[in-house]
Amino acid sequence: MINYEPFLSRSAEKMKESAIRKMGGVAAQGRDIISFAPGYPAPELFAWQEFADITRTLLSGSDGAVLQYGPTRGYRPLLETITGLMAARGAVTSIDRLLVTTGSQQGLDLVARVLADPGDAILVELPTYTGAITAFRNTQAYMIGVRQDADGISLDDLDEVWKRQQQVGRRVRFLYVVPNFQNPTGLLISLAKRHALLEWADRRNVLIVEDDPYRDLYFSDAASESDVRPMRSDDASGRIIYLSSFSKTLAPGYRVAWIDAPAPLAAKFELAKQAADLCTGGLDQRVIHQACRRGVLDRQLPILRAHYQHKRDVMVEALRTSLGEILHWPAPRGGFFLWATLPGGLDADAMIGRAVANGVIYVAGEAFFVDDSGRDRVRLSFSAATPERITEGVARFATTVREELDAPRERPRPSVTA
Amino acid sequence: MINYEPFLSRSAEKMKESAIRKMGGVAAQGRDIISFAPGYPAPELFAWQEFADITRTLLSGSDGAVLQYGPTRGYRPLLETITGLMAARGAVTSIDRLLVTTGSQQGLDLVARVLADPGDAILVELPTYTGAITAFRNTQAYMIGVRQDADGISLDDLDEVWKRQQQVGRRVRFLYVVPNFQNPTGLLISLAKRHALLEWADRRNVLIVEDDPYRDLYFSDAASESDVRPMRSDDASGRIIYLSSFSKTLAPGYRVAWIDAPAPLAAKFELAKQAADLCTGGLDQRVIHQACRRGVLDRQLPILRAHYQHKRDVMVEALRTSLGEILHWPAPRGGFFLWATLPGGLDADAMIGRAVANGVIYVAGEAFFVDDSGRDRVRLSFSAATPERITEGVARFATTVREELDAPRERPRPSVTA
Fold first, then answer.
1. What pTM was estimated for this model as a whole?
2. Which of A232, B140, B168, B330 has the greatest number of beta carbons closer than 10 A?
3. What value of ipTM does the predicted structure carry?
4. Which residues in chain A have their CB less than 8 angstroms from residue B265's CB?
């Protein structure tokens, strides 16, 4: 057997399995496990009948292009549809700024490849989306964490961190933020802070990657359309690279998302995508386009908001009842996630075995931190499980936490500097 | 307006537009242009009715996983199907060696990311598939060209090139080859040479990336199933990373291909794919799986072989009639491409303007060479156009060549070292 280690690139040596994907593997083992791990949308809400109708028409064979290779930029009518979606979000855009991506994960990957070199600095929140960490890590750039306040990223810490990078001679290429119902914390950045971030980016000559998959999923008791206005919509100087997706609203099985960016950067993302996968699936793009054109997306949004808000209520109520005095979390105002701090310094990753034994899984918080902190945090997704399963899953989770608190503690794991 | 140049990664600075994709843009302009440029399969042969039937069942809504995120490795039943396809090609494989990719372009990208560092050497044929060049270039490795004989890559030159890389201190990470009906030349590597390549890889401790999208499309008058046996099937020592695809046989609009590789490498490709796009589309994978299971693929293959062989005949006959004395090409024994050398040292890229004016396009050969040669070559795809359009397109091409021969020559373009 050949030893393949010497053949690996430096980037491949450092690749790590995503904690979310790993939990997906546990959930797929078929035992009775209630999963609060991946941020899956609720499949019972997918517009099955409408997708079937749309697809029947598309597969008639009258248009060969439906199953052919397509342009790297994306299917032109879908790009035009996205122009309309961006306008509804307050952002004037044009085709030369847009690129359809194979899910937003590809968008993150293209951004990283086009903007970061080994040794550069990329600023991210503490915590931040683990899929972004994975994509950015491959560039061998340094990811530097910035603390959060209750209304999202701390501006003071942001500028401190930037200055420190200047001092050590690292170029800060971009700041990555998820302003709306952040994954994993569920936090919403205030409008005042969004404006301040734009000013900061101008002052410090930094780009901002604004990742916005959850913006349509605000909960009516805690947020509104005006709270989720993208920074992109107020970006007068061209600092924002904006990513959004149909995965949380229509369906992730269609791998369709988009980037909106200043035209010179969009042109580079297009070249990077040529190398990455030539083009996003032609049928998928047409189904998404038709679902927008026929009003499916517009009809879905209020249904989705009410549905996920209800599930959030169920999870919050169950957590309050079972762990209210000892577990703490910021109230989710939208999105898919509840982000909790475990009591007594419990180690969420070390607790996973017990959780699986009790029939529940979550994502241990440290996967979202680039500084090796967050070991007492858990991300609980309330999006996919049914209300009954959420209640049962929280009961199992509460049992797990209480058992862990009562168990003799092992030595803390040695700290590893990231 | 911000100058974005200082924000670009070194890799992004060097990204170039694919010559094939560029020609796709010309073809999409809607004028009466006959395209011999991209290697598009013939859409009239796609199994439209069967795809529609399969999709109706899948979109019933009874299985929510159809439109959900899926495992990065791929949809398990499809992986099992691919195990069977590999067995039919003479290769014993297993799930832990396989990864579904979002088209083979993604496979090339993952291979490059996992195996190549800046400054490494990657060996490729002269000429080679331009999509591979694009993917490999992003690693900032050196691509070193190896000459071809009539039966594919020259073993003598291969070892010479390898030795030269040793002398200059560059690690040779892998050799990339398309043994069956190579893109762009249409060449088939002889079985003896395949065995010799495996021995060479063992002797020199190099991996081989075997890219095999066209193997099923052999022409009965010139090749048979035994001629297209993958090197992978005789790889006793684990040197081969094998890529194949459903794009040329079922449809490229479903972005479904696969990698078969030694398990430790497959695990790394999986991690790289997590960062690249999380997973390949769930519906696409299920449609392809069902098309295999229901026998659609098996029924299609003889139809496709006869169809493309006929189109090859039409193109060869038309070229013989109109340019037979002055244009030269190796006879295509399968696949999609005819590779021709222009007379009188004509520059294929410089001739494009005249070709477009005459209503025909092709890909200029230099896009397939990593050493800036091949300017008098053209790749003509006979796969997508109808027989009538092939005949008409060749007439336009012949006019273009004759006009170009008669035109006053401009100075040759200055040579640029790659």
1. 0.95
2. A232
3. 0.95
4. 4, 7
